Each structure stands twice: as C-alpha cells, then as structure tokens.
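@channel sequence for tomorrow's demo:
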Amino acid sequence: MNLEQEISAILKEWGASYETEIGEQLIQFQKTRKDMEGDLTLLVFPLVKPAKKSPQMVGEEIGELLQQKLDFIVRFEAVNGFLNLVIADRYWLGRLNDIIADEQFGTASKRNERMMVEFSSPNTNKPLHLGHLRNNFLGFSVSRILEANGYDVVKTQIINDRGIHICKSMMAWEKFGNGETPSEAGLKGDKFVGKYYVEFDKALKIETAAVLNKWQEGDFGQAPEAVIEEYKKLQGVHDSKADDPKAQKGIADKIKKLVNNHTPLMQEVKLMLQRWEARDEETVALWTKMNNWVYKGFNTTYENIEVDFDKLYYESDTYLTGKEMVDLGLEKGVFFKKDDGSVWIDLTEDGLDEKLVLRGDGTAVYVTQDIGTAQQRMIDYPDLNGIVYTVGNEQEYHFKVLFLILEKLGYTWAKNCHHLSYGMIDLRNDKGEVGKMKSREGTVVDADDLVDEVVRMARVMTEERGHIDGMTDKEKQGLYHMIGLGALKYFLLKVDPQKKMTFNPDESVELNGNTGPFLQYVHARISSVLRKSDFEGNVELSANLENVEKEIIKHLAEYPEVIHQAGTEFSPAVVANYVYDLCKLYNSFWQNIHMLNEPDINLRKMRLQMSVQVAKVIKSATHLLGIDVPQRM
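structure tokens (generated this afternoon):
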C-alpha cells in the first residue's frame, strides 16, 4: 500500500465518523508547491461538506488525525484549503528498500487477459517513411507498456497488399519497367516498387491534363453518359462562381478528380483489380512477384528499427472474409444494395452517414477487409479482451464506422476495440515551408535513410566525446546504432500521441537536451560510477536525506502508477516524460552531492544504492519505449 492509499483509507474512516461515504473522487492529491514545505498535498475543499466546517478547520482536523494514525507524518500545515504533509526520511528510505527488493519494480503481475496491438500495417506499393516510424514506435511501445501492465500481448499488422493503389505500381512496372528487378536497379524491393508508384502518378497527371483538355473542347470519347452529365453540371457551377475564386478552386478540384477517375490509365487499373479479384493467373503472378520484393524490403527495415510482430494478416486474405460478412449483413438487413449493385450501410440514425461496404463491380473497399480482419482475429484468438488499432487521426471517422458496423452485425467484442489515434507528421523543407508528406509524389522522409542519418550523427557525436577507447569496431557500430535509434524513437514518442508533429530534420537528430541520448548518457554515467566504486549491494539505509535525494526516491516511487497511466491512456509519452524528469533529477544530484568521495561509508553506499535503482528504472522505462541503454557512452 503506497502513501496515498494509506491516507485514503484513513480518510474513509474519517468520513464514516460523519456518516458520509468518502469516494475516491473526493480524495485528491497533488505535489506540494515549491514555495511551501511538504512532500504531499491533500485538497481539502472536496471534504468540507461532510464535516460542515471551514476548510481551515477540516484541514487541521484531518492533519491531526493523520499524525495520530501514521507516525511517519512529522508535521503538517493547513493553508487555504490545502493540507501540506511533511513525511519523515525513514518513510522514503523504506520506500527505497521496497524498490531495491523488487527486481520487476513498476510492472504488474499477470492478469490472464490478452490484448492485441495492430501497428505498422503498410501498403505494398511503397517503402516505410517517417509517418510509419511514428506508427511503429507507438505500437511497439504500447505493446510493451500493456505487457508491463500484466497483459498477454499479441503484436500484429495487417499488410495492405491489394487494391487500386497496389495495381498502380503493378501497372506502371508493366508499362515502364522493361522487366527490371530490384537487384538490377540497386534498390531494396520496397523502394523499387515505390519508384513505380511515383511513376504511375506522374503518368496519370499528364494523362488527366490531356483528357481534361479534350473534355473542355467537347470531346468526351468513350466516357459514360452519366459521367458526361456530371462533368457538365460541375462545369456550369464552376462558371457561375466567377466572383468567388475559392469556390471555383473547390469545383475545379472536383472536376479534376472526376476526369482523373475516368482516364484510360485509371480504367486499365480498375480492370487489373477486377482481374486480380477474379484470380487471373497472370495478374496474380505479377502481384506475387512484386509483393515478395516489398516484403523482403520491409523485413530489412523492421530488423533495423528493432520492431517485430507475433502475427501477420494480409488484406488479400481477410477481404474475402469481409465479403462473406457483407453477404451475411445483407441477409440480416444490416446492409442494403443500390441499383448499381453496390452495398451500403445507413448510419444516419447514429449521427454518421451512409457508408459503402462493397463496390458495384463486386470489389472490396477498405472497410470490407477491416470487417473481415477483425472477425478473423477473434476466430484466431477467441480470448482477446481487446484490439488496439494504431492508425493516424485522419482515419478517426473510419474506425467509428468500423466499430459501429461490427456492433450492428452482432459482435459484442466490438466494444473492446480501440483506435489509438495519433497526430500526423508534417514535413518542414529546407525553405522552412511545412506541408504534408505524399508518397505518390515522392515527398516523404524515407525510414531507412532517416535511420542511417541519425546513426551517422550519433557516430560523429560519440567520436567527438572520445569515451570509446578500447571498444572494438563492432562494439562501436552497435553503440552508434543504439544512440541514433534511441534519439529517433524518443523524439517521436515524447510527444503526446494525439498531437500533430512537424518534422524538422535538424531538430529530430539533436543529441542533447530532452533527447533519447540524454537518457542513455545518464545510464552510462551511473554504470561508470558503479564500476569505479566499492559498491557491493548490501547497504544500511539509515541517513538524513538531502532534498534532491528525497525527490529522487519520491520520483522512483511514482513509477508503478506511471506505467498504469501509460497503459490506460495508450501513451508512451507518459513514460518518456517521467524518465526524462528522473534523469534531470539525477543529473542535479550528481552535480551537487558527494558520492565517490563521500567520507561517510554508509552514506556513500546509500547514494550508490540509490544510483543503482535509478539506473534500474531508466533501463526499465526506456525498454518500454523500445530504447536500449549502454554501459559506456
């Protein structure tokens, strides 16, 4: 039982004396203000009503009661509705003893519950980029945080290996590739296929402009009558908005999208998708060959960023289950079919709108495969207590629709699905301009290139410091990779997941300040101190604590609650900010307190023991972030 729990138990007894039940929501603690004396502050205002006394009187009454019941409360002060409590050093030394005795300090016992965390989930038409890195690091870290909260965790991804976007790369390779292979091009397979995705977009833009010119001249070729009518209607609206440039641009974009969708090139791609879903042998063979190139490239990247998975799902499999569920939903009346054969669900009564679940030509959409994937996962893991989907916040509406569809299909487990929505990353270019990354235009920060760059910068920084004498070349390369990857992971995880980020290359690889390398350096410093010390592990913890020492122990004692909060909120940022504050505290301790040259042997050993526990928690917390810490740096 921690300090807050002990005090809470006494407050509940106090409330009973007034024939009032004191609920958890009425018991509120906060850190004592720096300009006040105390280690913990209780908010008195919520407790005034039961006693029918002034806040000052209630504060003093509770303070006296706590002193009677808890001998480690040495004094208190009731001030303006706040009760500041001063806790004896022996209490904090006792807490330090508890931390020492618990090798798994902070982590919860097994709870016999299973969670699945989906992350990465790339498309097989392009390599991983910076946005994927935030996704991967978030999902992997959340998986470890949930494990620390006692869950059995299944790490998974759904590989988006089918659809129009995949066919675009396939079509471009057929038209422009001349049989070229990744090895011939000197590219990883994922980058090789991504190159053709960009080539398709370039060709499509040229063709769209040409078709648009013809339509403007009245030459509609083989365009369907309904499409021609829609174009003329939009063009009429556009012309009527001559005095509103902003509205004209919006209509012009709709016209361009309409034309784009009916270019010969897009029609070829749609036919390719239909051939693929019909299992045309030649189309499937091309798809298999190009996807295998991509998988090999992905695996290299995952190994480099130290991320792995327990179970893989492929959209090319699960979309079939999704189509079966659409048929089932039609029978149940959950879905309805329109005249063109497309299948929809009406969610207007739920505050949403109508949602397409199957195209008129019988091909699946994203939500089709997501329905099938969710169902397949519950079949594979019937004991799942929940699924966490790590996907950007631009898909929030999609997941509202998905979870609602699953509920309407009668799947009660849909209530246990959670969308870990995170802010997207904008790209700042060398001109200082901020804009979205676009894979089809090639304006992305490539994951492999970024990792290589931060590792290079870590090497430069480490060599300048000159603390790696005696290390082998292999050990040095491992250290550079550990520091660089730690810098990148921490940069992307220290920000609350829901917040949008702007990526600036220079800031992202900064290796000083509030960074991953700072955490790694503090751990390496402690390791160095322990190597130089006479520390043996057995310590008599009886000393008067300096303020910074007490603050470190108090901060260490918060670690279990930090892990719990991070797991509840699915937020690695909670852990990142906690361990950064711990490292800052230890830095202050290191700079202001004697340790190796402390003449009092017991005091020196106590400080060394405290350092061991700080290192233990740093290593544990950074592990939750997917970051390794070195013994030397």
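heads up for whoever presents: The longest strand covers residues 384-392.
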